[in-house]
User: What shape does this take?
Amino acid sequence: MGKVAVVTGASRGIGFAIARTFAAEGCSVVITGRDGAKLARSAAELRRLLPKQTSAHDKGGAQIVAEVCDVRDADSVAALFAMVKQRFGRLDVLVNNAGTAQPAVAIEQTSLEVWRAAIDTNLTGLFLCTRAALPFMQAGATIINNLSVAARTVFPNFAAYNASKHGALGFTLSLRDELIPRGIRVVALMPGATDTDLWRQFWPDAPRERMIDVESIAQAVLYAVLLPPNTNLTELVLAPTGGAL
Assistant: This one.
């Protein structure tokens, strides 16, 4: 495929599955996260998936780059995309995947710390990464914002998470309309319950067998990225076949 992609929150789960799919297609992929050791292990695994013709001596081949980044921090985000610009000179795909959940708690018991963690990661981080990436994205590029179905529905006792995802959808819709004249596709990715480690935070016994697997989401993202430049796909909504959870 030959594209340059940045996938935030890519050391595990959905982000890692997307990065793995891109790497197998011959993309140069920059993966980010806050845990440097975990990122390094993920990057090593991704490098083994690159097409055989790519080697350390092939400067034109695909690359896997691991970069520690906290999407909540403007300076950290700026440093990430300055590196991408210097190393590759362009960005074809941005997957804003970094996100966090919250403990199930009523609104009056929601701490400011819990509120800020959700808003800063799921909404402000989305804005910071997009703003930093846009100056070197050209017509034909794609931005995928991983929002979850919480962007269009409400889960009781998850007010901070709901608010962050609803806000992220509003941002995504605004971004889509602004970038249509520039030929940059913006996609709201809204998967339903997905089999990732995130469930351990608030539902350890969740029925994983009824959930969407991360590879299915990665394939849907790849489909969106490979669409012809004159095609606009605004939403990717994926629901588990095992029924509502």
Observations:
- The chain has one domain: 4-238.
- Residues 112-133 form the longest helix (22 residues).
- The chain has six helices and seven strands.
